[in-house]
Specification:
Layout (H helix, E strand, L loop, with lengths): L1 E3 L8 E4 L2 H14 L6 E5 L8 E4 L2 H11 L10 E5 L7 E8 L4 E8 L16 E4 L6 H21 L7 E8 L6 E7 L5 H6 L7 H10 L16 E4 L4
Antiparallel strand pairs: 1-2, 2-5, 3-4, 3-5, 6-7, 6-9, 7-8, 8-11, 9-10
Length: 237
């Protein structure tokens, strides 16, 4: 079992390998500690976009844990239980950063609940839109200074020469000003890439080549965007 979330930008979470220990923790959170929000149970391995369940009580948690720990290919053999973040007004965002200097090149928003009216469970992504007005220049600066820069510094401290793309998923609550990092991946995102990449005016090959060679160490890349808004729609039956 591993506990994390002391960083003010990270939700509190714990990692488990047994159904029983995870359920004990959830019972403590809801019953003994009186936790009022949702807890999210997340499979650690690829689950075909069906690896996350949000639960609001012990009964829902029992059903979700039974499902996640029995996913195909044992995708839920390791899973985490994470505090939900933000209030009703909180919104999700995805940010893209690249290179050794982590230059940002856009913030986008994907939508995960399946079914009309966001009534279904989270899936791998049901479309996206961007750029989003939610991310002001001030907020973009907070994301970079509070989340991205510490990550870059940590990589350098560990002697890891990272050259590539960083995809960051987070939540922001305009009411409280709270901001949280939910995930980071060393890739170009999923459905958000469909609305991000077409607007990049840079030569994609040259940009990627520069990062791979590390030549952006001394000369950070300047990202040019065409300023157009794009929408990606996923159809499902």
């Amino acid at each position: 079992m591993y506990e994390a979330g002391a960083d003010r930008y990270l939700p509190r979470f714990r990692i488990f390998r047994k159904l029983t220990t995870g359920l004990e923790y959830i019972k403590r959170r809801f019953l003994d500690e009186g936790y009022q929000g949702k807890l999210f149970i997340k499979a650690a391995y690829p689950a075909l976009g069906k690896g996350v369940d949000g639960v609001g009580n012990v009964e829902e948690a029992e059903i979700a844990l039974a499902r996640i720990t029995s996913l195909p290919n044992r995708a839920g053999r390791v899973y985490l239980v994470e505090d939900g973040v933000g209030g009703p007004s909180a919104e999700e965002f995805s940010g893209y950063f690249l290179g050794n200097n982590f230059v940002d090149f856009g913030f986008y928003q994907d939508h995960k609940p399946v079914y009309d009216g966001d009534k279904g469970p989270n899936t791998g992504g049901m479309g996206s839109v961007g750029p989003i007005s939610l991310i002001t220049p001030e907020l973009a600066s907070r994301v970079k200074e509070g989340i991205v820069s510490p990550l870059a510094g940590s990589l350098k401290e560990k002697g890891l020469d990272f050259r590539g793309y960083l995809y960051l998923g987070g939540m922001y609550d305009p009411k409280t000003g709270g901001i949280w990092k939910i995930e980071s991946n060393v890739r170009n995102g999923g459905s958000e890439a469909a609305v991000n990449l077409p607007g990049i005016k840079n030569n994609y090959f040259e940009m990627t080549r520069s990062i791979a060679l590390g030549s952006d160490n001394e000369n950070p890349i300047t990202i040019e965007h065409d300023g157009k808004y794009r929408l990606s729609i996923a159809g499902a039956s």
